[in-house]
């Protein structure tokens, strides 16, 4: 459970990994200009009124987005650190304010050092006080970059932050989670891992999850395994070797190291990224997955 | 000609391939239609994956087809098909049953989810999800993309700009692109670079020399790269670390 008001329902938010042995950065550029252009916003409102509007698109909403487009939008970002077990380690409160065309780059390591907190594997919770979409719920600010640097390498992945209900059972029963990663890879030097977040838009969420995983090699043989349990608001990274044992290298060797990992959880939704870690160079890479059923709806 | 990229309501979805200077690109596609179209049998959800390559001038080089059974994957080493190449790649996976979208109100063509795995020197790896469906019609509207990049001494940085309207012979389907470098308060700190791309064309732009000069003036601060243009979707940033490690990711 988190504090009741750590984020409000309309505030876009997301969690990003913090790794203890690298420089962890979060950066953002406010580049969405549709909501900043009075002509475009007026055109949008006109179209919605002529073609028919949704029930939430009230006159008050239209007035608000029009005023925003003249006045210019400011977004205030806040941040907090959660442990891998889902406990709040530190709430930084207000971090940055940005207007159109402005950006920020925050060193999470410096934030933690300033508070005399050791940098451990954990999660950074980024929260914005508003979104930018021309919708009554303005549910996202656009893309945020999570960057990881050390003397061995540099990697970055980019993902949105959203104000949508996730694992919020009073709002709806989640349909479950499936992540499909056809880009898994391992050999003696490189090992892939999956990293799942058990996040919720309900601060009182208290469900632990235990996803099932299936690994498919290029000969279409399948191995099934258990990813391991993840506490509410917690996160967990498990490598293919940790899930399936060291013979996984031989298993994927049939496809020059390539394979597909499918993770499933029947009644909860998870955030999902995958990593490749090079044991010799110490470098890593990562990317999020997206639900494939979204492509055909 | 462009009709080849949208077949039976399934649209080609773009990414970028590099098979030179120590890089290799591997396309990874999983046939997820068995999950997506639950009420259809396996014969209908089995699929054909079409892969089209466009060189940096936008010329269509080749098309490859692969059968992918339901619940199975393919991992295509593009180096074996287009060695010493960099350019756009379009991928579409069409189920044999040619099913329509689950939501009848959504009339847009179905794009394909896949991942690109990049290898460098057979040692360093990075990967990213597909980028965007191709555009059938050109647009004169300016798109604007920005991202933050670092000026660290151990990093070299570039960006990859791609035209989103391949196989379109209309002159308006080309891209006119302006690239500028801004500080974090939206002030321009470097001259604009202009760029023209053919339909289906793409370009890897090395910004290292420009950024080195900026670093000597403002130090190791981060800055913003802004890309404005017609017929472009999100560009990608490319970072080369001095160890050989690298990162390629969309803005």
Structural account:
Chain A has 297 residues and is α+β, with helices and mostly antiparallel strands. Chain A has helices at residues 38-51, 59-71, 108-114, 240-244, 248-253; strands at residues 13-18, 23-29, 74-83, 88-99, 103-107, 122-128, 140-150, 153-162, 177-185, 190-197, 212-216, 222-226, 235-239, 258-265, 271-278, 284-288. In chain A, the strands form four sheets. A four-stranded antiparallel beta sheet of chain A has the order 1-6-3-4, covered by helices on one side. In chain A, strands 5-2-7-8 form a four-stranded antiparallel beta sheet. The mean pLDDT of chain A is 94. By secondary structure, chain B is mostly beta strands. Chain B has helices at 33-36, 42-45, 208-218, and strands at 6-7, 10-11, 13-18, 23-30, 47-55, 60-68, 73-77, 86-95, 115-120, 124-129, 132-133, 142-149, 155-162, 175-182, 188-197, 202-206, 223-230, 236-241, 246-250. At the A-B interface, strand 2, strand 5, strand 7, strand 8 and strand 9 of A face strand 4, helix 1, strand 7, strand 9 and strand 10 of B.
How far do the termini of chain B sit from each other?
Answer: 30 Å
Give me the side-by-side strand order of the main sheet of chain B: 6-5-8-3-11
The biggest beta sheet of chain A reads: 4 strands, antiparallel
| Structural shape of chain A | globular
Alpha-carbon Rg of chain A, integer = 21 Å
Structural class of chain B: mainly beta
Large-scale geometry of chain B: globular
Largest interface: A-B, 54 and 62 residues
Strand content of chain A: 35-45%
Task: Please report which band the strand proportion of chain B falls in: under 5%, 5-15%, 15-25%, 25-35%, 35-45% or over 45%.
Answer: over 45%
Give the proportion of residues in helices of chain B. Answer: under 10%
**Distance linking N and C termini of chain A:** 33 Å
